[in-house]
Amino acid sequence: MPPPPPSWHVDPVPPPGDDTTAADATDTDTDTDAGADDPNASAARDRHGIRHAVLAGIAGGLVGALVAGGLFLALDDDPATNTVGSTQVITRPSSEVARTGNIAAILAKDVPAVVAVVADGGPATGGGAGTGFVISEDGVIVTNNHVVEGASTIEARFSDGTSLAARVLGNDVGSDLAVLHVDAAGLPTIALGDSTTVQVGDDVVAIGNALALEGGLSVTRGIVSGLDRTVPTSRSTALSGAIQTDAAINPGNSGGPLVDSQGRVIGINTAIADPSGAQNVGFAIPISQAKPIIDALRAGNRPAYLGVTIDTESTEAGAFVRNIGEGTPAARAGMRTGDVIVSIGDSPVTSWEQLRPAIREHKVGETVDVVVERDGEKVTLRVTLEEDPGTS
Predict the structure, then answer these.
(1) How far is CA 7 from the centre of its chain?
(2) What is the mean pLDDT of the chain?
(3) Is 228 helix (H, G, I), strand (E, B) or coil?
(4) H or E element: which one contains 272?
(5) Active-site residues: which are they?
(6) What's the pLDDT score for residue 128?
(7) φ and ψ at 142, to 5 degrees?
(8) pLDDT at res. 240
(9) Which residue stretches of 75-192 are H helix?
(10) Which of 195, 247, 197 is CA-nearest to residue 97?
């Protein structure tokens, strides 16, 4: 088993002085299940005072090397309406709260299974840098999609100095997940936990390739600050059910593990709030939410797809259908523009952010009941889901 790196940075790394804003970012998300770019919608957002990008989970590690693109959180300038999802707060006796008492023990076990993911040669050559973690001895690695999206070459650099070429087994733009593979055997792996048991106040540790610094991975410690966050991004999608943490997360941490007091992965670090507007506000994809997508991508399968464009500005209690793709599952099932999707199978859909996670609960080829509100009545449509063309 490769030894841990010779050194790591335990103190939070100061954020880079990047002045990139949403105006500088390119929205490349073409997956229409949870909204798409629209000039009128963009103008409406501007009229409502949506600020420039303040959330970036970035594949690049150094200032000016943000090649693979980031995720941005838009916040309303009005404090009265400035909310990001909801926080589920569960109390329990303090004696039961798991504490990370021995960081060194966690690192000794986990660091060998965490890798620096380097895209197109890394920041020094205009590429990007992120993080990943090994989930099987035969070389399967999990990371964020935006870390490797569009990359011609990908390397996985281990803590013992080993560097292996990696290829993408599968990726999902909507959930921002990618599964890589390196040609190796007997690799150290990291244990996956159960994010459904995580509670506000639990201690956590973030491990990653922060700022692509030399000398080993960076490690930061914090707590779970909030649960069930819905984080709208610049790609007209959202991180749903995200874990919020105050463990310092920086560019380059994207795709790395957020681990609990036993060193088990409970989240995948994906996005951070711009330090100019917030301090130590990071978001991670819950591992229990990510597992079925990871399993599907690992097996070479693509996530399920409905084929609609959702109006993210609608005030309807559900997902308002703005457009339906020709020949898509939704079109074949008889869905209409103006329908409001209120449930997918057994999962209620009360907002546009909930649509994609509800679809992802089902497999390609599965036929599900989709309930829509149409002209004041509820209509049930039988939809056979297909492979998402936004993944590969």
Answers:
(1) 28
(2) 75
(3) strand
(4) strand 265-272
(5) 146, 176, 254
(6) 87
(7) -105, 140
(8) 79
(9) 103-110, 145-148
(10) 197
Range with the poorest average pLDDT among 70-79, 117-126, 150-159, 203-212: 70-79
Q: Identify whether the C-beta of residue 266 lies closer than 8 Å to the C-beta of residue 260.
A: yes
Which is more confidently placed, 219 or 75? 219
Q: How long a stretch of residues is the chain?
A: 392
* Residue 270 CB partners (closer than 8 Å, separation 6+): 57, 71, 144, 176, 239, 242, 254, 255, 283, 284, 285
DSSP 8-state secondary structure symbol assigned to residue 15: P
Distance CA 136, CA 294 (A): 12
Q: To the nearest 10°, the Cα dihedral for 272, 347, 324, 378?
A: -140
- 375 exposure class (CB count in 10 Å sphere: 0-12, 13-18, 19+): exposed
Taking the C-alpha atoms of residue 309 and residue 59, their distance in angstroms, rounded to an integer, is 27
Strand ranges in 144-237 using DSSP code E only, listed in sequence order = 154-157, 163-172, 177-182, 203-208, 218-232
Beta partners for 285?
268
Which residues, at least 6 apart from 158, have a Cβ–Cβ distance to it below 8 Å?
2, 112, 115, 164
* DSSP annotation string for 139-151: TEEEE-HHHHTT-
**How many of the other CB atoms lie within 10 Å of CB of 336?**
14
Residues 224-256, buried b or exposed e (16+ Cβ, 10 A)? bbbbebbbbbbbbbbbbbbbbbbbbbbbbbbbb
Asked whether residue 77 carries a pLDDT value surpassing 50, the answer given is no
Pair type for strands 282-286 and 319-324 = unpaired
| pLDDT confidence bin for 29, thresholds 50/70/90 | very low
Q: How many CA atoms lie within 13 A of 73 on its CB side?
A: 27
The lowest-confidence range among 82-96, 127-141, 155-169, 358-372 is: 82-96
Q: Which residue has the tokens 């959180």?
A: 73
Do the Cβ atoms of 176 and 70 come closer than 8 Å? Answer: no
Rg (C-alpha) for the chain, rounded Å, is 20
Asked whether residue 214 carries a pLDDT value surpassing 50, the answer given is yes
Question: Who wins on pLDDT, 111 or 280?
Answer: 111
144, 173 Cβ separation under 8 angstroms: no
Q: What are phi and psi of 227, to 5 degrees?
A: -130, 160
Of the candidate ranges 54-63, 206-215, 247-256, 355-364, the one whose mean pLDDT is the lowest: 54-63
Burial 176-212 (b: 16+ CB within 10 A, else e): bbbbbbbeeeebbbbebbebeebebebbbbbbbbbbb
